[in-house]
Amino acid sequence: MSTLNEVAFRLSRRPRSVPRARAVLHAVLGDWGAGQDIVETAELVLSELVTNALHVRVPSDRQVGIRIAHSTADGLLRLEVSDAGEGCPEIQEPREDDVQGRGLVLVDALTHRWGVSPRAAGIGKTVWAELKAPELAPPPRTTEIAAVTVRTGQSVRVWGEWRTVRSVGTERYAAGGLAVVLGLDEGPLLRVPAAEPLAVRALP
User: Fold this and answer.
1) Is 155 helix (H, G, I), strand (E, B) or coil?
2) 137 occurs within a structural domain
3) Maximum Cα interatomic distance, the chain, rounded to a whole number of Å
4) Which H helix or E strand runs over 160?
5) What CATH number corresponds to the domain at position 152?
6) Are the C-beta atoms of residues 3 and 138 closer than 8 Å to each other?
7) Strands 154-158 and 190-193: what pairing?
8) DSSP secondary structure string, 53-118?
9) Partners of 164 in beta bridges
10) Is 149 in a helix, a strand, or coil?
11) pTM above 0.70, yes or no
12) Which residues of 123-143 are buried (b: 16+ CB within 10 A; e: fewer)?
């Protein structure tokens, strides 16, 4: 039986979103049992895709959508980055002294295949890339994932006990940085950095 594991989230259009996306990917692939080679390659590919999306001209309130998925049916790890911009990215041939224009060259060299498709919801496009990763395993029932990937209905282990997540939101710390705000079935709101690993499990 084939299994599809996937995580989707959105980040603001700021340069700091590149390392944040990379941190989430690192945590997710760790949960899925990825080897170091796959992790490093995937982080580089995702960094290039997110960086390209941040350079696209879109309305200021638009965010960048990110999806990480792995199917045991084809053994491919798929990375998707969506933006509200127009146009279609193409591989360029930068000169030796050019400091930009090498992103898709790297993506093309490091991945099994990549492409562009219309954005599933709304205007814009999704740039996707796939890497061969047949050795990834389904995540265990209880695992650790980045706080930004926690969903309602899951249970998180906090204060030494399991609490059911009733709501998920985000806010900015006064000193900068993104915080995930979890409303739980008991106790106060839980605020943690977006990339903070949390122990989670699905409800039966």
Assistant:
1) strand
2) no
3) 59
4) none
5) 2.30.30.30
6) yes
7) unpaired
8) HHTS---TT--EEEEEEEETTTTEEEEEEEES--S--------TT-SSS-HHHHHHHHSSEEEEEE
9) 155
10) helix
11) no
12) ebbbbbbbbebeebeebeeeb
pLDDT digits (tens, 9 = 90+) for 28-38: 898 788 889 99
Calculate the alpha carbon distances from 189 to 119, 172, 178 in Å: 34, 15, 15
- Nearest Cα residue to 82 out of 127, 52, 129: 127
Residue 95 tokens, joined? 């000169």
Average pLDDT over residues 107-136: 88
Our count of domains for the chain comes to 2
What's the CA gap between 76 and 119, in Å, rounded?
Answer: 21
Q: Considering just the CA atoms, what is the radius of gyration of the chain in Å?
A: 18
* More confident call, 144 vs 170: 170
Can you read off the two tokens belonging to residue 106? 């790297």
CA distance 45 to 128: 10
Here the tokens at position 171 are 């806010």
Among residues 35, 31, 38, the alpha carbon closest in space to that of 139 is found at 31
Written as six digits, the tokens of 78 are: 């798929």
CATH no. for residue 41? 3.30.565.10
Identify the residue whose tokens are 């926690």: 150
Note whether 90 and 54 are within 8 A (CB).
no
